[in-house]
Structures are given as structure tokens and as C-alpha cells.
Amino acid sequence: MYRDCCRGHTTEDIGLDAIATLLRLDNDGNLYAEDSFVVQLKADFVTSIQYQDHELELLIGQTQPMSIALVSLDKSQISLYSTLFVNHAVLSLHAKKVAIRFGSSNLAPFFRGQKWLP
Fold first, then answer.
1. Which of 32, 37, 95, 105 has the highest count of CB atoms within 10 angstroms of its CB?
2. Which helix (H) or strand (E) holds 7?
3. pLDDT at 8 > cutoff 70
4. Are the C-beta atoms of residues 26 and 71 closer than 8 Å to each other?
5. How far apart are the C-alpha atoms of 116 and 105, rounded to whole Å?
6. DSSP readout, 13-72?
7. What is the phi/psi pair of residue 112, to 5°?
8. Coil, strand or helix at 92
């Protein structure tokens, strides 16, 4: 799956690729499973993803939090991005489609106190 999702991956593929669970290290030295979330994997050269129709329903209809992971095979690196703000914007504005763009933005923050990062 890793090879397929990163080499021949297209931005039209909007399915879920992984379920991740955060672990908590307890005082007894054991790791305990806590919160889980779903992940959609994309190659790191993807600069934007568009969702509309059934794709948008998939994005906002998750019962678990959803993140998008940009995967770099060359750097052996994964960058993880939450879709929380996208969900809020889509639901608040009753949007019929949305585009997520990765990178820096010159737009003003959508939410009060939100900071933009490269």
C-alpha cells in the first residue's frame, strides 16, 4: 500500500488509507492505546486536494477525526495535517465543495486566534 499510495497516487483518490491510534506511556512503563483517527495518505508533491459530492461527504462524515499525511519517500518523512478547520468551514458555510491547499497562505485566518504556518 505504501508504494502504491506514494508513487502512482493521484489526487482524485480520496479513500481512507490508515487508522492510527495514539499511545500513552504510563508510569508502569507500558504503552496504552488512547485516541484514534483516520488518515488519508498523499505523496508529498501533492499541493492541493479538492472534495465535492461524495468526496465531501466522506471528508465531513467521519466519526473519527481525520488527518491528511503527505509522505516523502526520498526523505523517509510524513507530515500530518488535521482536517478539523476544513470541517468547521464546510459545515459553517454549507459549502458544496472545498479545496485544501498545502503550503503558506496570504489569506487572513478563518478563525479568531488561528495562526498560519508554512
1. 37
2. helix 2-7
3. no
4. no
5. 7
6. --S--EEEEEEEE-TTS-EEEEEEEEEEEEETT--EEEEETHHHHHHHT-SS-EEEEEEE
7. -60, 130
8. helix
In degrees and rounded to multiples of 5, residue 94 shows phi and psi of 55, 45
| Cβ–Cβ < 8 Å for 6, 73 | yes
Report how far apart, in Å, the C-alpha atoms of 58 and of each of 23, 70, 73, 100 are: 26, 19, 27, 14
The whole-angstrom separation of Cα 65 and Cα 76 is: 24
- Supply the pLDDT for residue 7: 42
Residue 5 pLDDT: 42
Per DSSP bridges, beta strands 18-25 and 97-101 are unpaired
